[in-house]
Amino acid sequence: MHDPLNNSDSQKRNKLPRSRILRGRGAFDRVFRNGTRLSGAVVDARYLVTGLPGTMVKTGFAAGRKSGGAPQRNRLKRLMREAWRLNQHPVNEANARRQPPAELHIVLIAKKKAPLFEQVVQDVQAHAYAIAGLSGADTQTAQHTHT
User: Fold this and answer.
1) 61, β-bridge pairs
2) Minimal CB count within 10 Å: which of 2, 42, 118, 135?
3) CA-to-CA distance for 44 and 63, rounded, in angstroms?
4) Where are the domains of the chain?
5) What are residue 32's DSSP bridge partners?
6) How far is it, in rounded angstroms, from Cα 22 to Cα 28?
7) For residue 57, what are the β-bridge partners?
8) Dihedrals φ, ψ of 132, to 5°?
9) For the sheet containing 43-49, what is the strand order?
């Protein structure tokens, strides 16, 4: 009997393994220094096509001290991680089709102290679609700020 809520394809598709989490200060610094910036109401994003071979998309999550104390920042990062886990697919699929193949690094940055999960999902989803549409050869002509 087929159970639509327990679909193994859906479960595989919605995973966010540790290998797809961006780690290390150097990696974050490269994205902040050279990446393209996208703005949202509660979450900003920066992304960078690295030039490294492969098609992996690695995503990091950041919340500055203006977002509150450590518990609040950790909550914001958990919310962004869950929103990304549910909305990463357009970016993964677009990056897999890229010619020539290259790794893509993304950093999601919390802007507000206590956003609702729905607001986070809305911004993350908008960023995912924008990155999926802009992360190909046309990134140099993007209408977003490079800082």
Assistant:
1) 108
2) 2
3) 10
4) 18-132
5) none
6) 8
7) 104
8) -60, -35
9) 36-38, 43-49, 104-110, 57-63
Helices (H) and strands (E) in the chain, counts: 5, 4
Structure tokens at 114: 């206590």
Helix (H, G, I), strand (E, B) or coil at 120: helix
Of 31, 47, 35, 33, nearest in space to 127 by CA: 47
Which amino acid, one-letter code, is at 8?
S
Helix segments in 49-142, DSSP class H: 70-87, 89-96, 117-134
The whole-angstrom separation of Cα 21 and Cα 135 is 18
- pTM of structure: 0.81
Using an 8 Å Cβ cutoff, are 107 and 81 in contact? no
Beta bridge partners of 109: 44, 62
Please list the alpha-helical segments (H only) found in 62-107. Answer: 70-87, 89-96
Evaluate whether the domain defined by 18-132 bears CATH number 3.30.230.10.
Answer: yes
